[in-house]
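Q: My labmate handed me this sequence with no annotations at all. I'd like to see what the chain might look like in three dimensions before we decide whether it's worth expressing. Could you predict it?
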Amino acid sequence: MARRRQLYEGKAKILFEGPEPGTLVQYFKDDATAFNAQKKGTITGKGVLNNRISEFLMTKLAEINVPTHFIRRLNMREQLIKEVEIIPVEVVVRNIAAGSLAQRLGIPEGTRLPRSIVEYYYKNDQLGDPMVAEEHITAFGWATPPDMDDIVHLTLRINDFLTGLFLGVGITLVDFKLEFGRLYENEDMRIVLADEISPDNCRLWDVKTNEKMDKDRFRRDLGKIEEAYQEVARRLGILPEAGSRDMKGPETMQ
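A: Here is what I predict for the chain of 254 residues:
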């Protein structure tokens, strides 16, 4: 595909003008950042793996009628997506205490929470993406109350579905970050899932060993980062375990 005009470059992806009105091309980089970009590095092949993993998960979510911006994967590092108006709020779902939640509240990492907790963070790198309440979101006009109803409903459905999907391949979905956008079609507007779903924005632990299989390996200098991403893809059935064998679907772990 011919290179098109670059519209935006973020920490992990680049957005290009799409081939048709209302579309964009999303390119996945190997760049890795942590702690609001205070730590930077490269994870070889991460962009390729995240492109495939996000494609797989977005497609699965569409099958249960979760609306997403994803159209199709174009090549190893690029996918065609619908152009949406991004809501400047990161939605974080926590099933098990880890990361900043464990630190903030003094809860031992790995503690299963009484129920899934949904948190909101204002997307602003200069401010360090501060945590906000729904009252801030609606008061400042980042999203309307009906928008938030849709976002919460979709978030809980996504969490239920992905928790089960990952559990089926021996992975615990500890927590994850979502982004949503407004998709305008003719006179209609609807909230859709945007960005990506990958080991970059999910905490994924092996069910049996609690081994980390996500970007925490980069954050905490644990090593074997590429191998962890590859293992997630392998278990989901989108990375051949050996040779050219084509795995068609998730490999259920015993």
